[in-house]
Amino acid sequence: VPQVPPRVEELSELYRELSQHPGLSSACLGPELTTQYGGKYCSLYTEWSQRDLARAENIKFCRQYLIFHDGASIVYSGPAGTCSEIKGELLSRESPSGTLKAVLRKVSGKDKEKEKEKQFLEVWDQNRKVKSIDLTALDKHGSVYDDDQFGCLAWSHSETHLLYVAEKKRPKAESFFQSKAPEMGTSEEDTGHPKKEDAAVKGEQFVYHEDWGETLSTCSVPVLCILDIEGSSISVLEGIPEHLSPGQAFWSPEDTGVVFVGWWHEPFRLGLRHCTNRRSALFYVDLTGGKCELLSEDTKAVWSPRLSPDSCRIVYLENNVLGPHQQCSRLRMYDWYTKHTSTVLEVVPRQEWGAFPGIYCGALPGMCWAADSRRILLDTAQRSQQDVFVVDTATGSTTLLTADGPRGSWSVLTIDRDLLVARFSTPSCPPVLKVAILPAAGHEAQAQWICLQDAPPVPNISWGIHTLQPPPEQENPQYGALDFDAILLRPSEGPAAKKPPLVVMPHGGPHSVFTAGWMLYPAALCRVGFAVLLVNYRGSLGFGQDSVASLPGNVGTQDVHDVQLCVERVLREEALDASRVALVGGSHGGFLACHLIGQFPDTYRACVVRNPVVNIASMVATTDIPDWCLTETGLPYAPDALPDPAQWTEMLHKSPIRYVDRVRAPVLLMLGEDDLRVPPKQGLEYYRALKARGVPTRLLWYPGNNHALAGVEAEADGFMNIALWLLKHLE
Length: 731
Description:
By secondary structure, the chain is α+β, with helices and mostly antiparallel strands. The protein has a domain at 463-730: Rossmann fold (3-Layer(aba) Sandwich). 15% of the residues lie in helices and 34% in strands. Helix 1 (6-19) runs antiparallel to helix 3 and helix 1 (6-19) packs across helix 11. It is an enzyme of class 3 (hydrolase).
């Protein structure tokens, strides 16, 4: 009988406990009601997600709360009833009045073998389901998009129509040699003959359809669709130019047409997930004439358009095209009636305490406008924390709303009639639900946050933020005097607290950031007995655009030296065991981990990498983001450019595979079979190179998982294998 290592039970129990903390995904405020005594109250509907290890899936559940207020402060708030699981909901949206709710639901076929999953669009009133429309049977389009890149479910202001995005219907394709049964046709019509529009096309069976890359591999040609609720009829919107892929759509004022973001897909599609640098613009398509009008500049990248409550203004985020995939963004505003566009907030070159740090967010909150249609709410990284700001769109002035709150990671979930709902967490405290009333303009800093759903802090984790200044010889000649941060978690009690081993985790991206919020892996590793160092090297978001711009052309040196400097500094200044240091990194964090064990082999005793970039030169031809390979190497990207030998050399020169001969630390590789961003061939290339050199290595291959390795089973198995690998090699 194979022996179970003594710590396996203990580790799995720890993971089971910590992975049960739910995440808070969305919130929606119901209509405002008045009590017989004149007080106001409303319901708050929240959605949470949680890992169910027994079912090996992420489940969703909802919980309702009641909030009583007098317009200036919250008088009472508390839960109404218990949680209940939500099944099959892909999208849901309350109508503007709050009296109706639309739901996109997936339903498994009755006979699992024969019938594929169906999609239904439902409309609910306060007490029952009033419509259930089988979109799959209507067959006007392919699957409805439920992602947060293109997807939307938008009510018309009149609450008579719904707008959503779906895959364009493809003609049925068949073999050149398909034999036809002469009797009954495939149609449900009485004629017994196939309908004309369903006649199959020969020769199209194996045509390649481009997709939008990582996590969007089923998205190719999106179309905007409108459901007439009363007539239960669906129409696909005409008039959108052929070279654009539409998404993030909503109804224009007075329901005269639809406003949407259009992404250029010529000459070919590039990966879109986490890439806020793809050419796109804001458009309006008129429902009567089908005329399509450009509302923003057409040489930028735009996303997250949000219409003000008075239907006069649209705010949206804007970046330059190409360059770093994520960066400091501009906030722009389009006036619907004057057709004038203004810049509300510019790009911020350097973060300074007390000043607005810049916008570094994937999206604006779905509901972000204050009731005055003048101020908006957003959350953004401010160095290694995330904070909530209110922005006056008329003056561009900003106020920090979380100044008096605890340090950590704040996110806006929604704001409606100036009731503000937010999520807060820290590295030792799982997400909690907070509410506040937005004070009048000029008094925003007085916002009083009330905790509506608490989460007990996880014991035995202490954390702090360290700031580091590179030595003169490591300064960037173009962007001098930049500093950076690291978040250090450490066990606060027990034998491990005295001098724990250190696990170093650089983030991926490279243009992303660790904010001081709840993260399952670092918290769990800390509870196992490791100190965990989360490094926000130069190039991270939240430190100003200069920091972002300093890294392209310097990957493999500047970022590597920043992490090493940070490791040497904390080993010197903190009570840590310098003889037991390991690396854990994914994506660009894996790129850095592989560099560090090659460039500084004496520092590290073990290494774990998840979907790492190993060889930029071999990645460029296989990834969904070839522009990343050139940009981060410091080379210009153009769709028709072919790298010359010098450029291939430069890509190879900056890659960790170059240092593989110096690696001694045992390496655990974890690869997602369906990763389109950093294809698993990258990790395999490293695995073979290590095996050929006799370096102890182990490879875990996760089918059905992409770049994030976020499947419940892969994530749980991944933690167990990481913990066991580190315990084994740091003994």
